[in-house]
Amino acid sequence: LYGALANAAPYINDNRIPVWRDLFMSAIDGANKSDWNQGANAVLRTEVPASLDRQSFNILRG
Question: This protein's superkingdom (predicted)?
Fold first, then answer.
C-alpha cells in the first residue's frame, strides 16, 4: 500500500497522500527498529514491485 501511494502521488490531486505516506513510513520504521531491538535480522521491504510501476497509474492523470 505504501508503494502504491508513493507511486500514485504525482498523479492524484489529493493533499492527504503525503500525510498517509509519512504515517506508513513511520510505521515501517517503527516495526524495523522493534525487530532490530529484539535481535531479528529481517527488515520490512518497502520497494515497489515491478508490477506497480508508474505506468499502472497513468489512467489517473487529469
Answer: Bacteria
